[in-house]
Amino acid sequence: MIQKGIPEFRKDIDRAIEFLHSPGRHIALITHVNPDGDAIGSSLGLLRVLENFGHTCTAIVPNDFPRCLKWMAGADRVLRYDLQPGRTLDKLKEAEMIIALDFNEIGRIKRLADEWHNLQAFRLLIDHHPGIQAHFDSVLSDQSASSTAELVYRFITECSLLDRMDREAAECLFSGIMTDTGCFSYNSSSPLTWRIVAELIAMGIDKDAIYHQIYDNYSAGRMRLLGFTLHERMEVLPEYRTAYLWLSTNDLQRFGFVSGDSEGFVNYPLSIEGIRFSAFFVEKEDHIKVSFRSKGKVDVNQMMRRIFQGGGHVNASGGECNESLGETISRFRAALPGYKAELNHEA
Ligand SMILES: [Mn+2]
Predict the structure, then answer these.
(1) Which of 51, 146, 175, 235 could in theory staple to 41 by disulfide, Cβ–Cβ 3.0 to 4.6 A?
(2) What dihedral do alpha carbons 334, 336, 339, 342 form, nearest 10°?
(3) Centroid of ligand 1 to alpha carbon of 15 (angstroms)
């Protein structure tokens, strides 16, 4: 049914499939800090299928995830390491298999990374980020995949567990694909992605209701913060076909910011005619969070690596800076001339 035509990296996937073949395994699923729709959707979608088959699973996150994702089946059982470190560690130590989803650098699980090397479990990675997949016994990685949720669907297919996927699991995986592609506006040109989406819709999900759950559930404060950001905190640099946004902790407090409120802001400048590169700087307690987005061949993974030692995908990347907000923006602006040719190359 699903044809694979995309280059991917795999390591000992058969061992992972074999491992899952008989029910009753204890499995922990873990994803990255500040989990997004793909991280949570992949984790809960896979968890649901594995539990439907008869495995015992725990989903673990380093910290909280946005409220607009908490309707997903199993979201109320997700263990947060920042709230329950002891219980989370116990679950990881009990697990015979740990499945890491939507990241490959151990630093992405923050303080849990210190514990990683003491764990005995078999480790499977399912991910679509560029990077090194050391630290894992089995790997299913495909940088050209729309999302980890898409890879989870492919993995479930290979495990012959599609018959264990119910509507709730399909809702989780659809949410992962939808959010990681900006509602199918990027990273979604592969026919395979759409075939998988078609299969998920055939399982009875209500895609419009899912869209409303995720995108039409903002607080009034979040909408005002967006308006303020675009009006007062946006700089457009036509000579670099670039625009950037920034928010200080004072700005965030003024609008009653809660986690997830600035999700997606970084995409707005790309709607300006001619703009191909967008950056967003948010002041956190002890660092500046940096997000890059781009269109076409402008490689913001490389830019993020060189300027802020972060990374991600060609068109979406993230990083951190330990300087002040002003210094971070100065560092960014100072780097732009070096990319002028790339930013102005072709349409
Ligand atoms: Mn992802």
Answers:
(1) 175
(2) -170
(3) 24
